[in-house]
UniProtKB/TrEMBL annotation:
Involved pathway(s): Cofactor biosynthesis; thiamine diphosphate biosynthesis; thiamine phosphate from 4-amino-2-methyl-5-diphosphomethylpyrimidine and 4-methyl-5-(2-phosphoethyl)-thiazole: step 1/1
Name listed for the protein in its UniProt record: Thiamine-phosphate synthase
E.C. number(s) listed in UniProt: 2.5.1.3
Underlying gene: thiE
Gene3D superfamilies noted in UniProt: Aldolase class I (3.20.20.70)
Positions with a binding annotation for Mg(2+): D211, D230
Cofactor note: Binds 1 Mg(2+) ion per subunit.
Cofactor(s) it depends on: Mg(2+)
GO CC terms of this entry: cytoplasm
Magnesium among keywords: yes
GO molecular function: magnesium ion binding; thiamine-phosphate diphosphorylase activity
C-alpha cells in the first residue's frame, strides 16, 4: 500500500466500497422479497428496507463514479455453488452470506477513507445476523412465524396408512401436523414420531407431539401440544428448550386465561362440535370461539367436528385457524381434502 500514490489508493478503495455496497443491497433485496411476499411479515420487510436505505445513503456519487465494470476480472468468475439452489433456505442462506461478507469488506476498507461508513457497516452486520436468526425455520421466531401462517392443523389418529395419509396432506399444502397416539407402546410411538418429523421437515411443515414431551424431545419435534391435565407449560418448555413451541387445549375463558398467563404459543379452542375424538366432552359451540377471537392475541385453532361441511360456519363465526382430525385422516383423498379445506380458509379470511 505504501508504494501506491494516495490518489490511486483512494480511487481503488472507493471502487471496492462501491462494489460491496451494490452486493450488500442486492442481497438484502432478495431477502426482503421473501419477507414481503413469502412470509408476509411487515416488520421483517420494514427491517430489510431500512437496512437497504441506510446503505443507499452511504452509496454516494463519489463511490459510484469509481466503478469500472469493464475492468473487473471478477465479472467472468463463477462457481458451481452459485448456480445451485435446491431449496428456499439455500437462497436465503446464500444471500445472507453475501450481505454479511460485503458488510465486512466495507467495514475494513472504509476505515481508510470513510470512517462513518465503516462504523455503520459494523452495526448493520450485527443487525443482519439478528435478521437471519429471525428467518431461520429452527429459531423460535421462525417457528412462531410459520405457526401463524399455518391456518390448517392436522391432528393425526391411528391408521395403518398413517405416513401415507400425512404425506398426502403435506402434498396438498398442509404445514402443521400433530402426532396423537394414545394406544401404541413408547418405542413404537417414538419410531413413528421420528418418521413423521422427517416427513414434515422434507415438506417444510411444523411437527408437534401430543402430550408426550419426552417423545417430542426424542423425535426432535418442533414442539408439543398439552391438555389441561398434562405437564405445566413452563416445565414442558424447560425440557424442550426455548426455541420449541408449546400449545394448549382450552374449552372455556378460564382455561384460556391460564394458558395465556403460562405462556402458551397457541391454543386449541373447542370442541366446537361434538366429536368422537373427545368422547364425553360437551361441544362449546361458537360463543367460546368468538370470545377467544376477541380476548386472545396468539393463534387460536378451532377444533372439534370440523370438516368440509362445517368449516364455513366456523370461519363465519370468526375462526382464522382450524384443526381437523377425521376430515383428513378419514378422507378418501387426503391431498384433495387438504386443498379443499385450505381453499375454504383462504376464501373465508379475505379482507
Amino acid at each position: 500500500m505504501q508504494d501506491l500514490a494516495p490518489i490511486l489508493c483512494h480511487a481503488r478503495v472507493c471502487r471496492i466500497l462501491d462494489a460491496n455496497l451494490d452486493r450488500a443491497r442486492e442481497g438484502l433485496r432478495v431477502i426482503e422479497e421473501w419477507c414481503r411476499l413469502g412470509c408476509e411479515d411487515a416488520e421483517l420487510t420494514a427491517t430489510c428496507k431500512e437496512l437497504r436505505q441506510t446503505l443507499a445513503g452511504y452509496h454516494t456519487p463519489e463511490l459510484r463514479s469509481a466503478r469500472q465494470t469493464d475492468h473487473d476480472p471478477g465479472t467472468a468468475l463463477t462457481h458451481p455453488q452459485e448456480r445451485d439452489r435446491q431449496t428456499l433456505q439455500d437462497v436465503l442462506t446464500a444471500n445472507f452470506a453475501r450481505v454479511q461478507e460485503a458488510l465486512r469488506v466495507i467495514e475494513e476498507y472504509a476505515k481508510l477513507t470513510h470512517a462513518d461508513l465503516s462504523a455503520a457497516a459494523k452495526t448493520l452486520r450485527y443487525r443482519v445476523y439478528i435478521l437471519e436468526q429471525a428467518l431461520s425455520p429452527q429459531s423460535r421466531q421462525g417457528r412462531l412465524r410459520r405457526l401463524h401462517h399455518a391456518r390448517l392443523y392436522l391432528v393425526t389418529s391411528p391408521s395403518d396408512r398413517l405416513l401415507e395419509r400425512v404425506e398426502a396432506a403435506l402434498k396438498g399444502g398442509l404445514r402443521l401436523v400433530q402426532y396423537r397416539d394414545k394406544t401404541n407402546d413408547d418405542q413404537t410411538r417414538l419410531k413413528i414420531a421420528q418418521q413423521l418429523q422427517a416427513l414434515c421437515q422434507r415438506y417444510g411443515a411444523l411437527f408437534l407431539v401430543n402430550d408426550r414431551v419426552d417423545i417430542a424431545v426424542g423425535a426432535n419435534a418442533d414442539g408439543v401440544h398439552l391438555g389441561q391435565t398434562d405437564l405445566p407449560i413452563a416445565l414442558a418448555r424447560q425440557i424442550l428448550g426455548g426455541d420449541r413451541l408449546v400449545g394448549c387445549s382450552t374449552t372455556n375463558p378460564q382455561e384460556l386465561e391460564r394458558a395465556l398467563q403460562e405462556g402458551a404459543d397457541y391454543v386449541g379452542v373447542g370442541p366446537v362440535f361434538a366429536t368422537p375424538t373427545k368422547p364425553g366432552k360437551a361441544a362449546v359451540g361458537f360463543d367460546y370461539l368468538q370470545y377467544a377471537r376477541h380476548h386472545c392475541s396468539i393463534p387460536q385453532f378451532a377444533i372439534g367436528g370440523i370438516d368440509a361441511s362445517t368449516i364455513g360456519e366456523v370461519i363465519a363465526a370468526g375462526a382464522t385457524h382450524v384443526a381437523v382430525v377425521r376430515a383428513i385422516m378419514d378422507a378418501a383423498d387426503p391431498q384433495q381434502a387438504t386443498q379443499d379445506l385450505l381453499q375454504h380458509l383462504h376464501e373465508g379470511n379475505q379482507p
